[in-house]
Amino acid sequence: MRGVAINVGANTNEPGFRGPIYAGGRFEYVPIPESEQTRDDVSVPTYADLDLDIDVSSVADTPVHLDPTFAGIHGCKSYTYGDPHGVKAGPLLELDAGDYVFFYATLSTADENTAEWIAPEWGAYVIGQFRLARDPIDATDGLSERERSRFEHNAHCKRDAFDARVLLEGEDADSELYDVAVPLSAPTAGVDANRLVTELSSDSGKGPWWRRPMRFDRQGVETLLEIRQHGDRSVVSSE
């Protein structure tokens, strides 16, 4: 059993702000804006269409690149993810059915009195997971009609020019957007990686680690799953 963690979601570059994390670790999943032309025959939501509590008035009419999709979240019905970038597609294509993909985002701290494991100002947090329902699809040479039908609601299939190098499908039973985030940043600062990164992932935790894909072996995956289910998030919050 292996896992890969991938950075997703709104950030200070796109659309100019991060999603929030609140006092107890609950958060909002805010996608990035759609940067490519989309097909005329598909529906692409805007920020105003999403079920968000934060103020998105500055980008209300901007279409979103809603990827990954989580069933029951923002009107989505399935668990899918696509990526056009080789630096992410490479590690993902090494996975097999039954392996895990973890999605993490940088989130801005919204409340002053927070849990002890939440970083001041901002931090990186795991916000959801897929357990792969089948092997990743290498989409470098395009998709079959059957594959295109299966991923018709994924943002990359809604673009005029399909561009994903990899497509993933999560199984219903063990894929979800979390209720409470799992920290990758130490409570000292967002730039400080905790031991989930430095001891249990392939990443050193040096430099802009919060932008890079991270590989996890069985121990790392099991630790993440344990913390997500009923673990004390503060136990990983040392540098």
Brief account:
With 239 residues, this protein is α+β, with helices and mostly antiparallel strands. The protein contains four helices and 13 strands. Strands 1, 2, 6, 7, 10 and 13 form a six-stranded mixed β-sheet that branches. Strands 5-9-8 form a three-stranded antiparallel β-sheet, covered by helices on one side.
Descriptive labels:
three-stranded antiparallel β-sheet; 13 strands; six-stranded mixed β-sheet; 239 residues; 4 helices; alpha+beta
Give a verbal description of the structure.
- By secondary structure, this protein is of the alpha+beta class.
- It has one domain.
- The protein is built from four helices and 13 strands.
- The strands form four sheets. Strands 1, 2, 6, 7, 10 and 13 form a six-stranded mixed β-sheet that branches. A three-stranded antiparallel β-sheet has the order 5-9-8, covered by helices on one side. The chain has a two-stranded antiparallel sheet with strand order 3-4.
- Strand 11 and strand 12 form a beta hairpin.
- It is globular and about 50 Å long.
- The relative contact order is 0.20.
Number of helices: 4
State the separation between the terminal residues, measured CA to CA.
Answer: 26 Å
Determine the mean pLDDT. Answer: 96
Beta strand % = 25-35%
Helix content: 10-25%
Strand tally: 13
User: What is the rounded Rg?
Assistant: 17 Å
Task: Extract low-pLDDT stretches.
Answer: none
| Domain unit count | 1
H/E element order: EEEEEHEEEHEEEEHEH
Shape: globular
What class would the helix/strand composition place it in?
A: alpha+beta
Largest sheet: 6 strands, mixed
